[in-house]
Every structure is written in C-alpha cells, then in structure tokens.
Here is the input.
Amino acid sequence: MQARSNNVAIGQANPFETVANSGLIHRFTIPDRCAGTVIGRNQETIKGIAHKSNTKIFVASRNRLDAEGERQVEVIGSTVEQKIAESLIMEMIEGGG
Here is the structure.
C-alpha cells in the first residue's frame, strides 16, 4: 500500500519518477528511527517541506530499509529546490524534530 498526496508519497516505488525526470532525482537516506518525525502525522511535516521547497518527495516504506537500517528519500525539483528540501529534512533530524 502506498500513501500519497499531490507532492508526497510513502511506499514501495516512487510514483513521481518518469523517464524524463529520472536523471533529475536527488537521493539520500535518513535513519528509519527518524522517519516518523520527518513524515509527521498524516504526512503534514513532509508535505510542508515539499511545499516550502517546491519539490515532490518520496520516502521509501519501512520494508525497503537498506542494510544500515536507513530509508531512501528521493526529491524531484531543481538543484536548488532539492538542496532546500534535503536541508530542511536534515535540520529536523539533527535537531531531534
């Protein structure tokens, strides 16, 4: 099952990825233990980050953890927008939410 709003998706596969934008996706990982803080209740936190950064954001579901117990985050937008989104997410993680 995949949860999705207009600019945010949580699930197995990135619904925003297309052949045209596949090379424009910025990927990074976050610790699984921080995913709830980043996503927020009813996805409100991650929706706010997507809105502020003017990006589309995909967060892999828990059953897609990598070997280090991290979730992949994929951000679609311009390079500047991607950096803004990643920065906002990392600030939440480093600040403890």
Remarks:
- The radius of gyration is 12 Å.
- Helices lie at 32-39, 44-53, 79-94.
